[in-house]
């Protein structure tokens, strides 16, 4: 059965929380770590509840509500909630451990411990909308979001559910940033947003974000795209990428020429961006090429931002100038391929088609 992506919701380092906008106004950064541009949470969450929520929960609540509103989806229509996350609510985990140390293991409140688990986001959204159906969280590093997509697609394919809320979320916390900076995964010097690929240095610009989508076997007026296929690999060599890409497309009855736009996960790390060069300079040399991490930053579920971008391109039938890698012709894009990897591992291919 076809799997339709009926709506999107996003909170990121750009003003994506406003679903009426599509990167017309780019927020430029010159940092090594980016925080989200947060909406006014009071418009979505009661202030008393928001004060007790971790940043990841607040971002996800806004993104999920935005997606449901765009699809005119009632709360009782959601059959399942599936979330991908690399680190979960790691901020509350750090605070709880700090409280243990600072209070000499005494007088501890359980709130931060309860809210520190990886499945907190999916659980909080379910409580908020009263969803008692399938509730699952995937923690698969940089393919956590794709794992959630695969689960949702399989459930819709076999008729286990009709409407599924799928999301990916990760938040920034100090200890996580300090650790990755120490081991060289974060760039040492600030990089201006639009100059990321010219940085010539190792490491990435780290960030955070939440991206949610309503997937359904029922096409609604708000439909963005059809999810055709998702495939992941744990490890690939650079010289295998083109072969696996062609094989993935062949499995879905396509060849590289059938792809109108390719979305690549370049993050400016000179040690690993060669994986994308293998496609950019090979199979898709004459295809419209785009990238997104110069706008969103890098985190485990950042492919959710790439997925949001691809959906918007298909719905709006236009490519924002800020994400173009070349001037390949794609005036009326019908098919988009998303390819992402992180530090040579957790490769993912996601194929979308105009609905």
TrEMBL record:
Pfam family membership, one: ketoacyl-synt
Keyword Cytoplasm: no
Cross-referenced Gene3D superfamilies: 3.40.47.10
Keyword hit for Repeat: no
Organism superkingdom: Bacteria
Domain Beta-ketoacyl synthase-like N-terminal, chain residue ranges per copy: 45-210
Record keywords, A-Z: Transferase
Protein name per its UniProtKB record: Beta-ketoacyl synthase N-terminal-like domain-containing protein
Organism: Pricia mediterranea
């Amino acid at each position: 059965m076809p799997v339709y992506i009926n709506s999107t919701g996003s909170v990121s380092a750009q003003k994506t929380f406003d679903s009426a906008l599509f990167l017309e106004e780019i927020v430029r950064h010159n940092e090594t770590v980016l925080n989200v541009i947060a909406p006014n949470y009071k418009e979505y969450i009661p202030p008393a509840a928001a004060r007790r929520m971790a940043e990841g929960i607040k971002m996800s609540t806004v993104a999920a509500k935005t997606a449901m509103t765009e699809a005119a989806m009632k709360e009782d229509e959601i059959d399942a909630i599936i979330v991908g996350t690399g680190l979960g609510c790691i901020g509350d985990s750090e605070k709880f451990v700090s409280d243990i140390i600072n209070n000499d293991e005494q007088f501890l409140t359980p709130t931060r411990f309860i809210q520190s688990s990886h499945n907190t986001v999916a659980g909080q959204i379910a409580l908020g909308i009263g969803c008692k159906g399938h509730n699952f969280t995937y923690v698969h590093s940089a393919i956590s979001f794709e794992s959630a997509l695969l689960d949702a697609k399989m459930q819709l394919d076999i008729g286990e559910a009709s409407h599924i809320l799928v999301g990916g979320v990760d938040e920034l916390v100090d200890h996580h940033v300090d650790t990755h900076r120490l081991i060289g995964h974060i760039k040492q010097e600030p990089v201006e947003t639009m100059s990321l690929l010219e940085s010539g240095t190792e490491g990435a610009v780290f960030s955070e974000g939440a991206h949610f989508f309503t997937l359904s076997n029922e096409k609604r007026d708000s439909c963005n795209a059809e999810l055709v296929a998702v495939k992941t690999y744990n490890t690939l060599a650079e010289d295998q990428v083109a072969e696996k890409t062609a094989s993935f497309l062949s499995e879905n009855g396509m060849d590289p020429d059938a792809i109108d736009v390719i979305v690549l996960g370049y993050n400016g790390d000179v040690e690993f961006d060669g994986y994308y060069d293998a496609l950019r300079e090979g199979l898709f040399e004459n295809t419209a090429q785009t990238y997104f991490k110069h706008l969103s930053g890098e985190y485990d579920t950042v492919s959710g931002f790439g997925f949001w971008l691809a959906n918007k391109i298909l719905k709006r039938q236009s490519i924002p100038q800020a994400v173009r890698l070349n001037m390949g012709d794609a005036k009326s894009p019908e098919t988009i391929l998303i390819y992402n990897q992180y530090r040579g591992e957790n490769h993912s291919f996601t194929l979308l088609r105009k609905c």
